Amino acid sequence: xxxxxxxxxxxxxxxxxxxxxxxxxxxxxxxxxxxxxxxxxxxxxxxxxxxxxxxxxxxxxxxxxxxxxxxxxxxxxxxxxxxxxxxxxxxxxxxxxxxxxxxxxxxxxxxxxxxxxxxxxxxxxxxxxxxxxxxxxxxxxxxxxxxxxxxxxxxxxxxxxxxxxxxxxxxxxxxxxxxxxxxxxxxxxxxxxxxxxxxxxxxxxxxxxxxxxxxxxxxxxxxxxxxxxxxxxxxxxxxxxxxxxxxxxxxxxxxxxxxxxxxxxxxxxxxxxxxxxxxxxxxxxxxxxxxxxxxxxxxxxxxxxxxxxxxxxxxxxxx
Length: 319
Hints:
- The protein is α/β, with parallel strands linked by helices.
- It contains 11 helices and 12 strands.
- Helix 3 (73-84) packs parallel to helix 4.
- The protein is globular, with a radius of gyration of 21 Å.
């Protein structure tokens, strides 16, 4: 269970359910550590226990994995009924889907059962990247999907995957600028990983795809996060959304780190200190709430600052 926007979240994973095909980077069974798709009656049991345990708290049930609105309408309704049978009407439901799977009937059904938030796996707003990654829709279709959801008054979360095949500095900047223009309420950023058993692994092994480094991924995610938040767009996650840590056997290549989000926080704090002290740091005062960022990961931030400002830097360190 997770907290988000003041609510306690119960995530329900439906790996590959409704997906028209498997995307080149996707290995949801590994990411979610779940092989079987829960049936509506199983979902109902989970929600009933969740509601009983979290009585008096604001709650959200979220369907992740797969393509919820690509399921048959009857199946979508069964899942939503299984949630609403126990979830109070003032608590929320969240679903995730693709930009090209939002029919009028889909939106009407979601509204009927009080779904408040829709996450769109857009990944990129570059047509070249979408084509080379085999996503099956255009950037314009993704833009129109976001706008339809906004008009229908859903909370819109755009999921992005920088460094997909075909990515370039220009495509990455186009994606960021498009999101800034669209103004969704939320964004998730998942730097592309090469996972075992995917088509992307085959491209990587054939030297047809080169993943980015951890350092560059952290720097880009830090820049995107700051740009988005400066426009009041909430970045609700950086890195994989699952709590399950991938094993060395599952990650073939790419910028994976179990604490990726914290590395981005460290980078942001590093850049802030550098910007505020262009001529060097005479006296660094560490606030108690930031202590873990300064000393975590083998004092990564302090070591970066020492490289930036010289070997005498740590002498000025104060608690």
